[in-house]
Amino acid sequence: MATIYEVAALAGVSPATVSRVFNGNTVSEEKQRLVRDAAQQLGFTPNKTARRLRKQSSEIICLLVPDIENPFFTALARGVEDRAQESGFSVVLCNTDDDPAKELRYLQIAASEQMAGVILSPASDEVDLGAIASLGRPVVAVDRTTPYPVDAVKIDNRAAGVAATTALVDAGFRRIACIAGPAGIEETEDRYLGWKQVVTARKTVVRDGFLQHANFRVDGGRAAMNALLKLAQPPDAVVTTNNLMAIGALQALHENGIDPEGFGVAVLGELPYLLPPPVSVVQVRLPARHLGRTAASMLLERIGGDTQPLRTVVLRAEIARPPLSL
């Protein structure tokens, strides 16, 4: 079996550099490539068991997301895995269903199994990171922040809400409602505040009932859209603050026979399916995969011993298609 010294000689680097590459420490992309190419040629496999005993942690990252069926979190998970694999780490994916009790069980397992670190989108503001924190394991919050002092990477959700609503106003819609996620979640609050900022500044019609809270899933979007359509003076457009709720809203419009040319829909996120009603839709692209890669990079830096001050990285969303017109 090849040794670390043989890999170093073939790659033209020091044994310490080889060690840093396989321990997930910061090394230039060129040196990473040289080391991994040499290791592959020689059939070199790092001794994971020895390293785990020495470091008292595994080479496994725990990723906790609220709903893996949501394409946003699927893309985010892919970004995390891609980056982790580049540094020789594996990823365990846990689906919390936005359930704090389920989330806590997974965090306790991550601690007991000595996983190297955790990336999570918290189920609530009351997330309990005590077990992980007691071991000194790094944590990165993704998409939503936590009350704990940890690194975070998120989307500028308020700006995304502003962009979605502005696209509808610029297209000529004047009674714009909002279907937001559950109240009390940071992401929900920021996105609907973006909607509120625009409808207030542009002086569009806002009636009681125009803000609907729903779960983040298709059934929640459908129920909220049906409630909006039952208002005495229903909206002529709606901002939906995630993609699955948008699908439910579009289904409700189709089921109620709404004229597809006269109703606007803005979606924060990209629609994962082809839908039957050809309604006017603007999509705000959320950089989910980039979000995952960034979170994984930040975590790997901490695992490698990075001691710089805590960081919060904010990524921008963008309109995914040209503005609408009536």
UniProtKB/TrEMBL annotation:
<dbReference type="GO" id="GO:0003700">
    <property type="term" value="F:DNA-binding transcription factor activity"/>
</dbReference>
<dbReference type="InterPro" id="IPR010982">
    <property type="entry name" value="Lambda_DNA-bd_dom_sf"/>
</dbReference>
<keyword id="KW-0805">Transcription regulation</keyword>
<protein>
    <submittedName>
        <fullName>Substrate-binding domain-containing protein</fullName>
    </submittedName>
</protein>
<keyword id="KW-0238">DNA-binding</keyword>
<dbReference type="Pfam" id="PF00532">
    <property type="entry name" value="Peripla_BP_1"/>
</dbReference>
<dbReference type="InterPro" id="IPR000843">
    <property type="entry name" value="HTH_LacI"/>
</dbReference>
<keyword id="KW-0804">Transcription</keyword>
<dbReference type="Pfam" id="PF00356">
    <property type="entry name" value="LacI"/>
</dbReference>
<dbReference type="InterPro" id="IPR001761">
    <property type="entry name" value="Peripla_BP/Lac1_sug-bd_dom"/>
</dbReference>
<dbReference type="InterPro" id="IPR028082">
    <property type="entry name" value="Peripla_BP_I"/>
</dbReference>
<dbReference type="GO" id="GO:0000976">
    <property type="term" value="F:transcription cis-regulatory region binding"/>
</dbReference>
<feature type="domain" description="HTH lacI-type">
    <location>
        <begin position="2"/>
        <end position="55"/>
    </location>
</feature>
